[in-house]
Amino acid sequence: MSTRYDLHAHTTASDGTFSPRELVELAKKNGLSGVAVCDHDTTDGIEEALEAGTQYGIEIVPGVEINTEYEGKEVHVLGYYFDRSSTVLQDLFLQLREERLTRMDRILQKLRTAGIQISEKDVLAEAKGASVGRPHIARVLVRMGYASDIRDAFDRWIGKGRPGYVERFKLHPGQAVRLIREAGGVPVIAHPGLVGKDAIVEELIPEGLLGLEALHPDHSPEERKRFSQMAENLGLIATGGSDFHGAGAEHRGDLGSVYVDEHVVAQLKKRSLMF
Ligand code: AMP
Ligand code: ZN
Ligand code: FE
Ligand code: FE
């Protein structure tokens, strides 16, 4: 029997709409063997997922997604099987979450200039203590009638080049890769097709890069093939996942719509220093 692992999912610990427990229940329902919890700049969802995973017989792959920037390109770095008690890493996550709050304030300010009245309180109520992201702002925009759905909110207001767009804090992807590796984890470049600059992959190998997310809902079949081949050529682990964010217009893929088999998970474990 083939095993299916979805190695990229978000929960309510960041900008997903499913709680960690609900995510695990859905993984079970969708016939997955395991799911990776990769929230933005936080590991807060992992403990609950592990508990639910034990209960439902779903293997949880602990992870994180760190959004960085390099030469004007968004580079998202996934980390798997790192030491969650690493002070260096948790300090970085804390700093990045604080930067997210600062960025949110600046976005709201720009939106006010554009005639949109949304308060910090509205967004924080939407985020419910989670690592704040633009999707939370997008949901408020939709609820208040400023956009028809999440995608529309990005296209009209908060996506790159739109009136409410604010650049993120410029963490270099090399630093994210290094810190994940130093914490014993396995750093992987997320959805390289969305980065738009292949050379970055090779540049990050000396920093400790070990994998490439070849399979992603936003990758065309050609890109999936190309990045799988690139991973093989460079000796990187080719990973894949749905980038599930929850139900509704904001989701990337359904949970389990993109998956890899157990061999990929075994490779991740082999390269982690945690076992
Ligand atoms: P942030 O981390 O605050 O910059 O928000 C980035 C997140 O917003 C991504 O992880 C996606 O989940 C979501 N996102 C980015 N662009 C879009 C878009 N055009 N439509 C819907 N969601 C998007
Ligand atoms: Zn997200
Ligand atoms: Fe991402
Ligand atoms: Fe993601």
Topology summary:
Blueprint: E1 5-9, H1 20-29, E2 34-37, H2 46-56, E3 59-70, E4 73-80, H3 87-113, H4 120-127, H5 134-143, H6 150-158, H7 173-182, E5 186-189, H8 192-195, H9 199-204, E6 211-215, H10 221-234, E7 237-240, H11 262-271
Parallel strand pairs: 1-2, 2-3, 5-6, 6-7
Antiparallel strand pairs: 3-4, 4-5
Residues 10, 15, 40, 133, 245 line the site of zinc ion.
Report on this model:
This protein is of the alpha/beta class and 275 residues long. The chain has helices at residues 20-29, 46-56, 87-113, 120-127, 134-143, 150-158, 173-182, 192-195, 199-204, 221-234, 262-271, and strands at residues 5-9, 34-37, 59-70, 73-80, 186-189, 211-215, 237-240. Helix 2 (46-56) links the parallel strand 2 and strand 3. The chain is globular and about 55 Å long. The model has no long low-confidence stretch (mean pLDDT 96). It binds adenosine monophosphate, zinc ion and fe (iii) ion (2 copies). Adenosine monophosphate (AMP) binds at residues 15, 40, 67, 133-135, 150-151, 154, 159, 168, 245, 250.
